[in-house]
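A common beginner's mistake is to predict each chain separately and then try to dock the pieces by hand. The better habit, illustrated here, is to supply every component at once so that their relative placement is modeled jointly.
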Amino acid sequence: MRDRIFKIWENISPFFRYEFVYRHNYMKYLSYPIGLLVITACFLFGQWPTKYELTVDTIGDKFYIYIMVIIIIVSAVIGSLHAAISISSEKERKTLTLLRMSGLSPVEIISGKALNSVMFILLLVLPQLPLLIWCPFLGGISFAKTFMGIAVFLIMTFFYAVVGTSISILFKKNFMATSFTIFIMLFLHFGMYVIDDIFGRGSYYYSNRSAFFSTLSPMEVWNSFFYELYYSGTSYAEPGHFKTTVLEGVPAFYLTVPLYLLVSIFICFFVARNFESYLKWRED
Amino acid sequence: MIEIKSLYKHYGKLVAVKNLTLTVPKGEIFGFIGPNGAGKSTTIKILSTLLTPTAGICKINGIDVVKYPYEVRKILGYMPDLFGLYEELKVWEYLDFFAACHKIAYKNRKGIINDILELTDLTVKRDAAVGSLSRGMKQRLCLAKTLIHDPLVLVLDEPASGLDPRGRIEMRALLNELRKMGKTIFVSSHILTELADFCTSVGIIEAGKLAVSGLIPEVVKKEGVGRHIRVKILDRVEECQNILSEYETISNLSGAVVEKVFTFDMQADDEALCELLRRLITAGIPVISFYDKGGNLEDIFMKVTKGQVS
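With all components supplied together, the output reads:
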C-alpha cells in the first residue's frame, strides 16, 4: 500500500513541482492568499455583531458561513478557470505533444492537472483555515460540522477542477476554454433552476414538491449544508421534496456531495479514456 | 527496428500516405526526404503513436504502434518539428520535469541529467532559463529531453530546420554521436544537404508514395546517379584533365585552373575510384586531395520525384 501511494505521488508530482516549485511564482503564492485574507477580514469586520447581539446570540456559525461563502466563490470561479487553462495552455504553447510522449498515461495527465488546480485553491484559502477552526470556539457550530464543511469544500473544489480540466481538453485557446467553462459553471449553478421551471417543476419555492434538478445544483449543496448548520436535524423542504422522498429527514447534501465525488471520478476516468482518441480525431 | 507495411492515411478525401512500406534496421540513421506536403510528418506522427493510420501496420522493435502505443512510447524518443518549451523553467528543471514524467527515480535523475547535458553540450547552460536560450540550444534541449529515458529509437521531425550553419553542424555531430551509441534514428527533412552527410539510408517520399528507399550506396547504384568526386592537385592541370576526359563514366567535369581543383560525377564503385586515383598518381599528377562526396541526394531526389504533392 505504502509503495503504491509513493508510486502515485511520484506520478503526479511532476505537475506539482512544475507549478509550485519550478515556475518560481513565490510572490504570487504569497500575495494571493494574503489578499484573500484581507478581503475576508474586511468582510468579517463589516459583519461584526453589536454588544447586544453578542449577549443574545452565538456568532461562530455566522462567521463560519461568511468565511465559507468567500472560499466557495474562490473555489468555483478561480478553481474552475485555473483548471480550464491547464491543458489548453499546453496546446497553446505546443507542449502537449511532448507531454503525451513523456511516458505519462492520460489518467496521470488529467488527474495531475486537476489536482494541481485543487492544490492551487488550497494554497489560496490556506490562511482562512485557522479562522474556520476558530469558529467553534465562538459557539454555534461544532468541530464535526466545521470539518464536514471543509470536506464538502474539498470535494466540490475537486469537482470544479475536473470540470475545468475536461473542458480544457476540448479547446486550443485559453480564451475559448475559459469562456466555455464560465458558461458551464453558470449553467450548473443556475441553469438547473431554469430546467426545473421548464419542466413545470417550479424551483422558485423550495417547498415545491416536484423540484428535482435544482437540488443537484452546487448552490443547493451549500444551501442544504448551511440550513443543516442552522436547523440541525430539521428539514427545510416540505415532504415530497427530493431529499425527503429518497431518505426521510436526511439533508440533501448527504446525497448530492457523494454524488458529486462519484461524478468527478467518473468524468476523470471517462475523459482520460477518451483523451488520446479525441486528440487523434482532432488531428484528422 | 522500424517496420512499416502498406501504410495508408486519409484525411477525408485527401490521401496523405499511400501504401508506404519500408524497413529501418537497428543502428541506422534513416533520412526521410520529401518536399513539403509529401506526407513525412503524417508518417512520423503515426510512427510516434500520435495519429492512427487508416490502414497498414507500423511496428517499432516488433511492437505495434496502434495496439500498444504506451509500450512504444517507452522505447521511442520523438522530437516534433514545431515544439514549445516551458520557457520559465531552468534547463535542469525542464529535464528533471520530463525525467519525473518518465518515472525515473529521484536519486538517479541528477546523474542522468548531467550526462545528457554533457552529451548535448548544454552543461554551461544548466542553470539558465529555457527562454533565454538561442534557437539552436533550444533544439538541443528538446533533443536532450527526447533522450532522457534512453530510448532505442529516435524519431526526429526536421531537427535542424531554422538552425544557422553552426547549429546544423553541431546537430549533425550530435546525431552521429547518438548513432555510435547504438540508437536507431529516423530523421525527416526537406533540406537534402542536411541529411546527405550523416544518413546511412534514405527514403524519398512524394505525394504520400515512397519513391525509393534503401542504403545510400544501393540507392545511388539503383538510380544510376554518379558519385561526386573532388580532386585537388598541385600542378599539371592539363595532363590531369586529359586523363579524366578519357573516362566515359565521368560526367559534369569542371576544373578550376587557378585553384587547380576538378569536380565531376562518376558512375563507379569503390574499386573503380581506387583505380582512377592510382592512375593519376602513376601518371605523376601531384594529387593533394581526392575526396568522394558520395551519392548526390539532390540528383537522386530530382530523378525520382516529379514535384507532386498529396
